[in-house]
# Entry
Amino acid sequence: MAQAAPVGPKIPTKSPQPAGTKAARSGRTAAGRARRRQVFASGTGRPATRGDGRVVVELECGITVYPAREEGDRWRAVWYENGQRRQCEASTEDRLAARLEKVTERLAADAPNMERPGADLIGYYLSADRLPVQEQWSRKHAHTQHRLCERFAAPVIGTVTCQDIKTAHMQRIVNAAPTPGEGARARAMISALVGAGITGGFLASPRLKQVHWQAGERPLPAPQVTVAGESALFVDPAEIPAAADIEKLGQALAAGRHGERDELMAHTAAYSGLRWGELIALTVPQADPGARVITVNRKVAEVAGHLYTEAPKNRKWRRTIYPRTTPGGYPLADHLAARITQARAEQEAGTNPLGLIFPSPAGKHWRASNFGRRVLAPAYRAAGWRNAAGHGEWTWHSLRHVFCTTALFTWKLDATDVSRMAGHANYRITLDLYVGTTAGVLDRAHTATQ
# Structure
């Protein structure tokens, strides 16, 4: 006798949830009508193409809402995003409206990447392909942005959906910086990140960048006090060594390991306006001893312990000059011409393959840390630029200030000419750094009251 087939489990057709009261149903209906007035206000009705001919609602951004046909049926919405047909459902009208709020935000902002995690936003921001070739970051700036994102941004928003990123997240990122200076850099990074996110379709609100560093329970830095009428960039004359002080440093360097070469290096920096990276990258073809002209078309940048040769700051080539004799009496032109001839011979002999005018002992580019420790530190103490504790007002960059002030006030050159030779972004930086407007005010006042 054949056995009867086992009876399969019965599929429930009734909802296990208790039926709501009439008052509760009417309350939900009232809430649904209120939500529909807000979210579906811009919609227009049309007869459905299929079914019983009920009217569907067409919202902005191409969202079509299909109301429930009967009590207990689900509301449904359909739209196209990223070339794909998508839909969502909800048991009531107000719940569907809540789900469509984010959809409407994405479609209205044309931001197809808002559902991706914050890590993808950071990756897009740091991508080299995001910017045109002529506007891409320098290595040093790129390294700084990678460090800031890895240290501050990724722990906060790395796993958060981009559409859920709020101003509070950005505030946490900036507040994670330990100092106001680092907080300012983090804030600048956030501003650029939000701008890139809006452009790339990851974010929609520019308000996300409206944050600033907050001290909280940390001690506030002392307020910066400036002189009225002077730029915050103004370099006090006391911070600029005089010709006699440069002579002392040159003599101290001449007594060191490399003798006259290091002395020439200091005088060249002081009276040509070359930055450190431009000076150590200086090669024989860049210098014209006959015309006393140096073409600055490269620099050495140290990023994360690695040295790179790249275009100078602002990616602008420039030309600068140097005097025959410095105000202190040093014959700069003659010594530099002799050094150029020597460097050319070293290059032909293979001991200085790059043809550097100021090479390291190994015939390569100097590292700032090695040069500062082995050459500058003892010379600073011998010249009186540093005390026994290693403290002093002047640094190697002070030599660049010497060139600008000498060109402005000794050679009487126009500020626009000095700006071009020094490689400033614009002549206003030159004026803000070296021309104290307060002094001019006092001079005019003295003249008027004599």
Summary: The radius of gyration is 35 Å.
